[in-house]
Each structure stands twice: as structure tokens, then as C-alpha cells.
Amino acid sequence: MPMTTGETIRRIRKSVGMTQGELGALIYFTQPAVSQLEHDGPAVYDVRVLRRVARALQVPLAILMVESDEEADVNRRQFFRSGTLSASAAMIPGALQTADTARPTSVRVGAADVERITDSIDRIHELQLMAGGDRLCEIATNEVRYVEQLLDLGSYTDKIGTALSSASAEMMTAAGWVHYDAGRWNEAKRYYADAAQAATAADDGIAAAHAWINSCLLSYREGSRPKEGVQLAEAAQLAARRQGGPKLRALAAVREAEAYSAIGDRSAVVAAVNRAHRAYESTKGHDPSYLAHLPDAQLSGLIGLAFMRLGEHQTATSYFQAAVDGTAAYPRERIAWKIRMAQNFVRAREIADGCTVLTDSFDGVIQVASTRLQTAVVGIADELRQYTAIPEAREFLGRWTAR
Fold first, then answer.
1. What number is the average pLDDT over the span 135-160?
2. Start and end of every HTH cro/C1-type domain (predicted)?
């Protein structure tokens, strides 16, 4: 039986780990409308819709729309047999292969290709804020493979090659971030190392700073190398000083504060936080588009993490409250800061307050698709088991156990 357009869309979507709702957000469809599309509803005959789907899934339009059903079925089955989704070769315009054809030796890469990669980086960061990293790992991995394919097989000018290397560094950092959020730390570490190398090759201080900022995060979150985290944060600030804008430099300084908090050096934490505020208020330099989502509230939450680690729970609470209040546009991110606020309350032995925060947002807490955050909630629940005499703790643990 021929493979229909709807079935093809469904198989590709599922192979990259994307839900119907996430695909709908990218093509401006509701989830039920995507379901109809995958069941060969009327929209599969609209080339404008198929163009949007092809862009969202990063596949050639020809896979979704060809002139005859017989030709469509042959191309689609060859597409899936060739493993193009995992290798991302089919994402390259004109690179569609069959199992019997030779691999292309060169693809011309231009400014439009680099711009598409940059748009994809922004989209990954945006989706991570909305949905969490667990659902994005395969998508980000495929995007990295696509960029690597362009670098390895493409032909381009020196200018485009430099821009492509910078874009590859940022894509690797984005992939590292979603893998970190998904609790896949070893893969995140590898992506960050590759990103730093690519950024250095491109002499891109902004991309290098971003990679080192995230590598710093891994160092002190693991708890074993906080001094290395400080060094990476300092390197990020040096790299950002030449080209980086206010938000990038502020983020690097806040990560330094967090690393110092893991060491327990309060004076260094306060100095780094003050430096972050000064950087954020300046107008010098250029911030990449992926940092457009970094409001005051986000920095407040990160500063709250540093003070929580120092044991200054009252100060941490005020920062976490600012983060919760300022992230209403991103419900998933707001839940993240509520989880951290609850964690801070429990560490301060304000058990009732911590449990109330979790219970009031319980549905969001248990549904957030982030292994990193779910691990934090599991830790809170384990801590609360010694407080079952407190009614709020019993209520939360009862719902947690029954979930």
C-alpha cells in the first residue's frame, strides 16, 4: 500500500521526537489540525501548508509533495531506507539520495543557509523554554548533524565559512543545553567542548563565551569541580568583553557567582552579582537573538540559586519570587522557578510554604518535560518524607505518590 503524505509527516515527526502540539506551534496549526493533517485531511493538498511542514521538520519538500502517488511512494520509502533522518543528509537542498546513488560530494552554501541555521537555534531555545529539553534532544542532534554535513560537504566563500562555523558553535551549544536539561550530562559536555572549538576556529568571542558559560554550569552542578567552573566563567567574560552585549556578559557573571557559591565564597558571589547588574544595565556590545528571552526575572532566578546554595534562604526567596513573577509569558519556565523556590523553602525548613508552592502548581510540576527539574522534585519529595506530621507535606506526598 502506498505511503500517504499524512503518514509520511507522522513518521518524520515521531522520528525526531516532536509532538503534534510542537509541530503545530511551528506551522501555526492546532494539535487537532495536525492530527487531521497526518490522517490526510484536506490540508495535505495545500502546497503552502506542506512548505511550512517541510521547514518545520527540516526535510525536502519533494518528500511531501511530488507529481504522482507512485513517484511519491518510491521517494518516501527510499528516504526512510537511506536513514536520512538520522544522518540529516536529506536536509540539504538537492541532496536527496536513494540507496543506490552516490553521496553528494559538494553542496553550495550561502547566506540563506546560515540564516536558516540561526533561525533554528532561536527556535530550539524557544521550544526549550516552552516544552523542556527532554523532547528536543533528537531534534537538536539532527540539527548539529545537518550543520556538520554542510561544513564537511559544502563549498562556500571564506566569509560564509566563518559564519557557518560560528553558527555550528551556537547550534552545538543549543544541543548541549537541551541534553543538559534532559539529564544527559556526558552528551552535553561533549557538545560544549565541540562548540568551544568551533567558536575558537571562527574567532567568535560571543559563541565561545556561550559555550564556556554552559560548560561552567556543568562543572559546579556536578559538585566536583567548582573551581573549574569559576575559571570557565572568567574565560567566558573575557571572551564576551570584546563583542558581547549586556545580557551575555551579565549571564557569564551570574554563572561565576553560582560557581563561587558552590565553593562557599560569599564575598566573591556578591562581587560577581554586582558585576552582573552593571553589565546588564550597560548598552555596550551585541547580544545574539537567543538571549532575547533573558529578562531581569531570569537573572533574578539564577542569583537566587547562588544564595540558596550559600544557605541565605531569605535572600534567595526574594530573588525566586521575582523570577516567578517575571516569567508569566513562559509557563514552563515559571514552573521551573516555583520548583526552585519550593526547594529553597524546604532547605530553610519552611516545610509548609514549600509544599504549598508545589501543590498549588502540581499539574505543571509533574508534567514539565525536563529530567533536570524532575530530579529536583524527586529530591524534594525524598526530603519531605521525614515531615509527614506536617499537613501540607502529607498532602503533597499523597498527590506525588498517586501521580
1. 89
2. 9-64
**Which residue in this structure is represented by grid cell 563561587?**
260
For the record, the C-alpha cell of 172 comes out as 552545538
Separation between Cα atoms, residue 159 and residue 340, nearest integer Å = 44
Cβ(164)–Cβ(55) under 8 Å? Answer: no
C-alpha 35: how far from its chain's center? 25
Fold of 5-84: 434 Repressor (Amino-terminal Domain) (1.10.260)
Residue 199 CA to residue 288 CA, distance in Å, equals 14
Question: How many C-beta atoms lie closer than 10 Å to residue 274's C-beta?
Answer: 12
> Mean pLDDT, to the nearest integer, of 111-137?
86
Average pLDDT over all residues of the chain: 84
**Do residues 344 and 304 touch, judged by C-beta distance below 8 A?**
yes
| Phi then psi dihedrals of residue 327, to 5 deg | -120, 30
| 3-state DSSP assignment of residue 289 | helix
Domain boundaries, the chain: 5-84, 108-203, 295-403
For residues 315 and 294, what is the distance between their CA atoms, to the nearest angstrom? Answer: 21
Q: State the Cα angle at 55 between 51 and 57, rounded to 5°.
A: 115
- For residue range 203-222, what is the model confidence (pLDDT) as tens digits? 899 999 999 999 998 887 65
DSSP 98-163: -TTSPPPS-EE--HHHHHHHHHHHHHHHHHHHHH-GGGTHHHHHHHHHHHHHHHHHEE--HHHHHH
- Residue range 295-403 forms a domain whose CATH class is mainly alpha
User: Nearest to residue 116, comparing CAs of 92, 137, 88?
Assistant: 92
Helical pair 296-310 and 331-347, crossing angle rounded to 10 deg: 20
**Does residue 280 contact residue 242 with C-beta atoms inside 8 Å?**
no
**Rounded CA gap, 3 and 38, in Å?**
12
Report residue 287: phi and psi, to 5°. -100, 130
Cα torsion 293, 204, 220, 248: sign: negative
Query: What is residue 286's three-state secondary structure?
Result: strand
DSSP string over 358-385: HHHTHHHHHH---HHHHHHHHHHHHHHG
Q: At 108, phi and psi to the nearest 5?
A: -75, 125
Q: How far apart, in whole angstroms, are the C-alpha atoms of residue 44 and residue 34?
A: 10
Task: Please list the alpha-helical segments (H only) found in 202-330.
Answer: 205-222, 226-243, 246-263, 266-281, 296-310, 313-325
